[in-house]
Design a protein that fits this description.
three-stranded antiparallel β-sheet, Citrate Synthase, domain 1, mainly alpha, 2 domains, about 375 residues, binds acetyl coenzyme *A, single chain
């Protein structure tokens, strides 16, 4: 028996699986739009709250719409006591495992959990977005032997996260950096984690399943885990002079420079441009300019690779920003996840609106038609 001839699309590279109105990426020139608006404008002008509204409701909010939306987000920050208990029980796990577990568990307390209507998904998306920073910060406190810090309703989403994480009100400049970081991470087409979320939705599972899947897929170093690895690399390099030998040795031995390369971008990831300026300014403000200098040196050394389309991505500078804000390195991916929940939500809502089961195929290359041998007759 022969198999039919197949055309493989390994890794689904350049395969379009559906249409979207949520984000547009031009990988050749490094351009990213959310609902038609350039990320450059949003990063400089829009708050994360405004960006979430734009993604969820397909329009920029008026002031009164934004105020109502912000109040809704704030009203959903607190966690059910059982979720805090789950965080206590899992406190020694990696923060992404705790976030995934806690987000999954919130399904048990969400009255809309099984309702896949557009309206219910908007409500659930807001709840999950609002609760994620509380989960991450509560875990950080609990694993340090402290009680979680209650959300501060006077602070915005980003500022409140830093407040709950450190137990004191943040410098507004630090809060503004995290706010922009969330804006830049909010949505990005059908990347691996959003694809995972869409696959879950395509079976008509619910938003909690899909976001839990998204968090699981984001964790790997080829995706959201890269920011942590970039900062580890910068620490290992230690000073500007070491950057050349370190990077050349890594690449010559077939290693990957973390924070470089992207499946879609062949130019510099536009998100990394904003994060670069922020990393430089923050390094100067904190009296630690050397991390930025080391990363800039890595970019210089990687210059020949840019001709092959291997340029710095969103994760390249974000790790340095988190590090300079004294955020523990194992929380870096969780910050990415907090920013991406609105993106997963809109991808899932689009999937539901015109659903089709996502079920590709594999070409079988194993043996065929073997004769079954009974247990006693096997060698
Ligand atoms: N350093 C050195 N070489 C690289 C890098 C890198 N970071 N990225 C790609 N290359 C090279 C590969 O070795 C390969 O070379 P070859 O053709 O000679 O074998 C070529 O570029 C193509 O690489 P692929 O792995 O085929 O590209 P793919 O699209 O599958 O991978 C990925 C993209 C996973 C992001 C890759 O570039 C990588 O591993 N980067 C480092 C991790 C990272 O920064 N991930 C974050 C991505 S952004 C995000 O997810 C939010």
């Amino acid at each position: 028996m022969t198999q039919e001839k197949v055309r493989l699309h390994r890794g689904l590279r350049d395969v379009y699986i559906d249409r979207t109105q949520s984000s547009f990426i031009d990988g050749k020139i490094g351009k990213l739009l959310y609902r038609g608006y350039n990320i450059d404008d949003l990063a400089e002008n829009a708050s994360f709250e405004e960006t979430i509204y734009l993604l969820l409701y397909s329009k920029l909010p008026t002031q009164s719409e934004l105020d109502a939306f912000d109040a809704d987000l704030k009203a959903n920050r607190a966690l059910p006591e059982a979720i805090v208990e789950i965080i206590r029980l899992t406190k020694d796990a990696h923060p992404m495992d705790v976030l995934r577990t806690a987000i999954s568990a919130t399904a048990a307390y969400d009255p809309d959990v099984a309702d896949n209507s557009h309206e219910a998904n908007l409500r659930k998306g807001v709840r999950l977005t609002a609760m994620a920073p509380t989960i991450v910060a509560a875990h950080a406190q609990i694993r340090n032997g402290k009680d979680p810090v209650e959300p501060d309703l006077e602070l915005n989403h980003a500022g409140n996260f830093l407040y709950m994480l450190f137990g004191e009100r943040p410098d507004p400049r630090d809060a503004a950096l995290i706010d922009k970081d969330f804006v830049l991470h909010a949505e990005h087409g059908v990347n691996a984690s959003s694809f995972g979320a869409r696959v879950a939705a395509s079976t008509q599972a619910d938003l909690h399943c899909a976001v839990t899947t998204g968090i699981a897929v984001l964790k790997g170093p080829a995706h959201g885990g890269a920011a942590e690895e970039v900062m580890k690399m910068a620490l290992e390099i230690g000073n500007e002079e070491n950057a050349g030998p370190y990077v050349r040795n890594l690449v010559e031995h077939g290693g990957r420079v973390m924070g470089f390369g992207h499946r879609v971008y062949r130019a510099v990831d536009p998100r990394s441009v904003h994060l670069r300026d922020d990393a430089r300014e923050l390094g100067e403000r904190k009296g630690q300019p050397k991390w930025f200098s080391i990363l800039q040196e890595v970019i210089e050394i990687m210059q020949p690779y840019s001709r092959r389309g291997i340029c710095q991505n969103v994760d390249f500078f974000s790790g340095a920003i988190y590090y300079l804000l004294d955020i523990p390195d194992d929380l870096f991916i969780s910050i990415f996840a907090m920013g991406r929940i609105p993106g997963w939500t809109v991808q899932v809502m689009e999937q539901f609106e015109n659903n089709i089961l996502l079920r590709p195929r594999l070409e079988y290359t194993g043996p065929m038609d073997l004769e079954y041998v009974k247990m006693g007759d096997r060698d």
